[in-house]
Write a structure and sequence with these properties.
- The chain has a single domain (2-128, 140-462), classed as Amino acid/polyamine transporter I, CATH 1.20.1740.10.
- The chain contains 17 helices and no strands.
- It is mostly helical and 472 residues long.
- The two termini are 23 Å apart.
Amino acid sequence: MGNQRKLVRTLGLGYVIIFVIANIIGSGVYKKIAPMAAELHSSVWILAAWIVGGIITLFGALSNAEVAGLLADTGGEFVYLKKIYNRFFAFIYGWSLFTVIQTATISSLAYVFAQSLNSIIPIPDLLSSMQHFSIGGVFFPFQDFGVKLVAILLILLLTGLNISGLKSGAGTSKAILLLVFTGLLVIVFFGLTSSVHTPENFLNVGELTTGAVTFSSFFTAMLAAFWAYQGWVSVGFIGGEVKYPTRNIPKGIVMGVFVVIFIYLLVNVTYLSLMSIPQLEQVHAAGNQIAAVEAVRSFWGTGGVLFISLLILVTTLGCTNASILTGARPYYAMARERLFFSGIGKLNNTNVPGNSLLVQGIWASVLVLSGTFDQLTDMIIFAVFIFYGATTLGVFILRRKMPNAHRPYKVWGYPFVPAIFILFCIGLFVNTIVARPREAAIGMTLILSGIPVYFFLKRRYSKKEVDSESEL
């Protein structure tokens, strides 16, 4: 019976926009300005990185929207890449989602949730005697184990919520997003009207010509910005549950990304008006501080710390939930195509891929133990932009392969917009290898580990088909 169940199209344009925004706005808007300050040492260059990162993200979103409008279905990029290239490349993308891109996103968001909770209610430091235990001197699974355990419990709790049904997860995301918007606007309003507000902190245009910023450092700083913008593509994963997906998914992606860019600029201008670059660099050097918390502390004191900590808690809760909900769909689509383990391709009694959600939750919990927040996010951005570039290249390929197909949306600025995005993906890929070789190596290893798995699954299913024929 489970194999005969089908996904139900229940989500309209409003929910598509909600999922785009909810998948993007997570921890990055609160944390990432500090590592950007440490890299660029200039408020003007930081804002430039946010703007360029937003424009490049928009170029990618516009390009992706054309492909989504043509091919929208459950699985998102997995479906697109299978049509553009082949089953092997689509599998490597789906495997990368499972091993690092989506699961590490869930892990890092849950980790920041636990950190924020720890700042409100101190979490006991469990297994402290084992905190120096390491795997290869890179991973310290028992460091801050109390915080990590809370992150794991959150992942498993939200996974259980989403296993209970699509509307449960979607309704939770909608309610949380409303709270997040309200909280961010409160910070912007009171921050920009407070006596601590110092506009000259971010209006010194002379910083643009100091020569302290290199091409590589700007790219590296944008790794942080791109983490904050990461997630917009995930709405394509639920294509099989969206009404009129070829129309609503492209619209939702573009509208959602525009909203996020506007919010990010407002919020980061507020941070920069409240804190100097040396203060932000100190936050980064401390390792256990969050820039947004220190910014709000500057004008609201300890009461402000409680407010922003609660807001970060709610935001990361919402983004973790949205990432769990959307992330499990590609593995379900892969299993239906015999490109993943068969049990993952089944729907439960509430018409959601319960097994896929459960396996995703377990692996994401393991990744929580693997590293720090910044290690995880740098690995994600390195990996995901390989496939963003491949999907955008698909705009050119599909226009040649399917010239007469109906396209509900055509990318604005073709061929320049998709070409610029592809070149940027190549640049980011190369720069990450140079500037973050460890994270790049780990990310690449996890991606390439899918090659033997692909051939194992291919042999396994081929053998099953032979056995079935011999029984007949």
